[in-house]
Automatic annotation (TrEMBL):
PROSITE patterns: CBS, CNMP_BINDING_3. It comes from Marilutibacter spongiae. It is found in: Cytoplasm. Signal peptide: none annotated. This is Cyclic nucleotide-binding/CBS domain-containing protein. It holds the Pfam family DUF294.
Amino acid sequence: MQPRARSGRLQAMDSVPGLDLSQPPFDLLDAGQQSRLRAAVDMGFHPAGTTILDAGSDSPHVHVILKGVVRAWDERSEGATLFADFGPGDLFGAWAVIAGRARHRYVAEEDVLDFLLPAGVFRRLLADNPAFAAYFHEGLSLKRRIAAGDQQPSELSELMLTRVRDAQLAPAIRIAAATPIREAASRMREARVDCLLVEGRRDADADPLGIVTRTDLLDALALDARPPDAAVGPLARRPVVAVRANDVLFQALVTMTEHHIERVLVDDDAEGVLGTLGMAEVLAHYASHSHLISLRLERAATLDDVSAAAREMTTLVRHLHAQGARMSYLMELVSALNGRILGHVFDAVVPAALRERTCLLALGSEGRREQILKTDQDNALVLADGFEWDGLADAMQRFGDALADIGYPPCPGGVMVRNPAWRLDVAGWRGRIEHWRHDRDPESAMALSIALDARPVAGNPALFEPVGAAMGALGRDEILLRELARSTLAFSTPLTLFGRMRGSAEGIDLKKGGIFPLVHGIRVLALRHGVTRHNSFDRCAALMQAGALSSELGRDVPQALAVMMRMRLGAQLQALAEGRDADNRVDPGRLRRLDRELLRDALRVVNAFKDHLRDSFQLRAG
């Protein structure tokens, strides 16, 4: 234990100057509440080495550091571990006042001068000000909203907050499959719509609802020389892509981008079909740059055209990030565009007649739909059993070279289709998966982890189904799961660098210290519980629904992941703007105080999630 001697309050005074009440969370207080707090605050002095607050104990004060550094220690069965450094402007001890017990042991690393907020006054402020109370009770969620409030309001907020049902929907006009083209065109003109829903045709296996657009009718008459009295049924496209009425407009934009379409059906579980939503209606709320990239990809005739469209991606990301786009939406949109790019390149090197015998897989962050900026190529190929093509190796080399030209560098570990080890037939993949199951070396564990995020993006997706099923079956192997989960604990949480900069000027690696433990831990839990979703946010929601995550972790883990991904992206965009290489490091010295607090809270969630994994997979020492 650390000594307690000499720690205490300075002589009381009527009002202590220097406490900045314009910063969160004190800016949530009204003028009267700030005045009450300012009149009650005292000051304390704690010599270096003094224990200011013991873990598990109540506190008579909430502390705000004026000068010096306080270290927070986690008390665990295996001994004390350093949790975080707190520096000038940082607040600690609030949980001890609210819950009656401190989460950590707080020790003065050097002489500390701090403001002392009396517990009684602090509790009264919590009771009188719901927003102030929510800041401490809701944690990351509210702090993120406060941080977002520092940004200028933008048109993007309309896209993020407006539900599809509240947009200007076009009526859903239904016609029979036998309706003549002439009559269908007349119905469009009368209803002032540019598409019609075509009800079921005679084929028993056909989807009951199709869609035909004004362009479809024009092409049928002008290009295919169909007579005006021909039935519209054969022109209808199926299946009809739909979005939910309660989705936000940004999600509809992602869906249109991913499916190469400009209109979707709007469906509600209770009310049925509400209408259709087109790109024009979405863009009426926000003039997104993404539709321009999508249009360029749609019209791309050469790989040079694809490359030109892909070069716009970083500009799009920079714009949406600056406008405050939610990370999950931003990642989905970028993933949809990346999928289009991969598909174009794949189709350019694989003849159309052979695509049904092949399936291109995106792996890693692209497989999870979590890639934002262009990173290393991570892909694989599934071939139909017995399929042989002499030009396969050359085509996959050209595929990799084309991606490199576009800006996706080769994977240093060779996880890409130009490597024969990552292009196998279905039987070969099943054998590889069994090998990964029994061979517990680190290289196999890493390869399996990458493969678990596989997602079909081009070719015949049906070829992946038996491969995906074989990987899903690994969830019944508890020994394998335990070994996979153990790697989540390989990197320490970099909380000791907060409060003031220490050590390397390169900053902290957020991927190793924060993002990887969450992403990989969620991935392993998803495998254990049979969750087939790939995105970390979707996996987390499914795990909470399955009872594999508490409501608290189910709420906090996605928030923490979004915080760290956003801060990493901000640092990467800043690096690119300064002509430096983008990496996974963040310099805490460049962060605002609220952002440092957000990041500290996010890393606290990482530690709590690691504890959950230790308990779930029995990984604790002893």
